[in-house]
Write a structure and sequence with these properties.
About 55% of the residues lie in helices and about 15% in strands. By secondary structure, it is an alpha+beta fold. Strand 3 (about 240-250) and strand 4 (about 255-260) form a beta hairpin. The longest helix has 27 residues, at about 75-100. The N and C termini lie far apart (about 80 Å).
Length: about 300
């Protein structure tokens, strides 16, 4: 009877409990995912897109960890499989890039993943209690839901700044915040409370993003042909992108054009000197970089 009940539970849970997770599957999955992420990181077109987020952000890795936890056979099994999965997959991301580019990313960046990888042991052990379907099971999942909320807010800021940057990642975070309590828990009351908390998390972080959107500050000192002066006037031709002002930078002891962008894209700004001469520039603002060219 117990085996029949377990089979029905697994069948109902599907991805979150219905996989016979052998060590072979864990190791193969770690290798495949690590290599995949390394290859994605090598493709220039994926820069500042949802496709590369898996290489630098946590949201998809949270899914991998929960899937491992929910399909493990014991606390120890869960802890060890989470640890081994991340121990293999994370270095592979950098190793693939190092092999192709002859770089040294593994030694430079992997140190940031060492602590999270070690923490997989206690998190995998404690996370196994989510399978107990108790009220404290939801308390174990809740920090991950809030953590995803922070990721959702970050991606939403980028999306609002320049559409459709990180659109898929924002959707992924919002959907998984709801999916986890929906499919992890069998107890209807716990499931419903988890879904309500998930909706609240999404709403709160959406409001935070609207109230405090991304602002991209850019300093322009004039380049080779001109040095910005205190007496200059400056303005953006299209104010929907943000605002511009003359500002003194004490660190370099010079004046600059300080532009605060609330929206990415292509626009123009004008510097008017004291004698009335105008200098016009085009500026293309991306999520994490910009290009400025003087108009001839």
């Amino acid at each position: 009877m117990k085996s029949v009940k377990k089979e029905k539970d697994n069948e109902r849970k599907g991805l979150f409990g219905g996989i016979k997770l052998t060590w072979f599957k864990v190791i193969i999955a770690a290798i495949v995912i690590g290599v995949y992420c390394g290859v994605i990181a090598l493709i220039p077109a994926t820069l500042n897109t949802s496709f590369r987020d898996i290489c630098i952000s946590f949201e998809v890795w949270i899914l991998f960890g929960i899937v491992i936890i929910m399909n493990s056979e014991s606390h120890k099994d869960s802890a060890l499989k989470c640890f081994v999965f991340f121990l293999i997959s994370q270095p592979l991301i950098y190793i693939v890039q190092d092999i192709v580019n002859h770089s040294n990313l593994l030694m430079t960046y992997y140190r940031f993943w060492i602590l999270p990888t070690i923490l997989c042991v206690p998190m995998g052990f404690i996370g196994y209690y989510m399978k107990k379907d108790k009220w404290w099971s939801l308390l174990i999942l809740l920090p991950m839901m809030v953590f995803l909320g922070f990721h959702y807010s970050g991606f939403l800021r980028e999306l609002v700044f320049i559409f459709p940057s990180h659109l898929l990642s924002a959707i992924f975070c919002a959907v998984t915040i709801i999916i986890y309590p929906l499919f992890i828990f069998k107890n209807r009351k716990i499931k419903n409370i988890g879904i309500v908390l998930g909706i609240i998390i999404i709403l709160v972080f959406t409001i935070i993003t609207i109230v405090k959107p991304k602002v991209y500050d850019i300093q322009f000192f004039g380049g080779d042909n001109y040095q910005v002066k205190k007496t200059d006037k400056v303005y953006l031709k299209d104010k929907k992108y943000g605002e511009a002002r003359i500002k003194y930078e004490s660190g370099v002891d010079e004046y600059c054009v300080n532009m605060s962008f609330v929206k990415g894209g292509k626009t123009e700004f004008v510097i008017v000197s004291k004698d009335g001469k105008k200098r016009e520039y085009t500026i293309k603002v991306y999520p994490s970089k910009y290009d400025i060219n003087e108009k001839k």
